[in-house]
Specification:
Elements: E1 14-18, H1 33-44, H2 51-62, E2 70-76, E3 81-89, E4 99-106, H3 115-126, E5 131-133, H4 142-147
Helix pairs in contact: 1-2
Domain N-acetyltransferase: 18-161
Organism: Geotoga petraea
GO molecular function: acyltransferase activity, transferring groups other than amino-acyl groups
């Protein structure tokens, strides 16, 4: 059982680690990849990406092969997803961290109860090597990431074609 303070009235909370497609077929897990992706899209809100891009990152996390892989964490009870994480492996080391925390979201109804922090802790424990993430400057979750030890190292710049 997965314990988090201040989750009154929420019972049977479990953390599911998904490392391959077969993990979706476990008897004790009732959520599909699409349901998790839709959860992320809804609960990331304006800080998220379109559903097809979320699904792509999940597929990357579940892929076999060199320079691919990662995992998905889903905190849930029997009825609801409470939070989810998508972590992608980069296949790099040093100049680019080995892992990118691509998505983390907490159900809007349960925010402020320690779920996000607990999910980050579990994701960091599960990841092999350094972890990077991208966060917009006005995202309220930025403070949580800083409390967990994440530091701003670079300003990201993108050229979109």
């Amino acid at each position: 059982m997965f314990k988090i303070k201040n989750l009154e009235g929420v019972e049977n909370v479990q953390l599911k680690v998904i490392e391959n497609r077969e993990n979706f077929m476990d008897d004790d897990f009732d959520f599909t990849k699409i349901e998790i992706a839709e959860f992320l899209e809804e609960h990331l809100g304006r800080f998220g990406d379109p559903l097809d891009e979320i699904i792509d990152s999940m597929d990357y996390a579940l892929a076999d092969g060199k320079y691919r892989g990662g995992f998905i964490l889903v905190l849930h009870n029997e009825d609801n997803i409470l939070g989810a994480v998508v972590m992608n492996n980069t296949g790099m080391k040093g100049y680019i961290p080995e892992n990118i925390l691509v998505y983390i979201a907490v159900n809007k109804e349960y925010r402020g109860k320690g779920i996000g922090g607990k999910l980050i802790d579990e994701a960091i424990k599960k990841a092999d090597g350094e972890v990077a993430l991208h966060v917009e400057y006005d995202n309220p979750a930025k403070r949580l990431y800083e409390r967990k030890g994440f530091e701003s190292k670079y300003a990201e710049m993108r050229l979109k074609n």
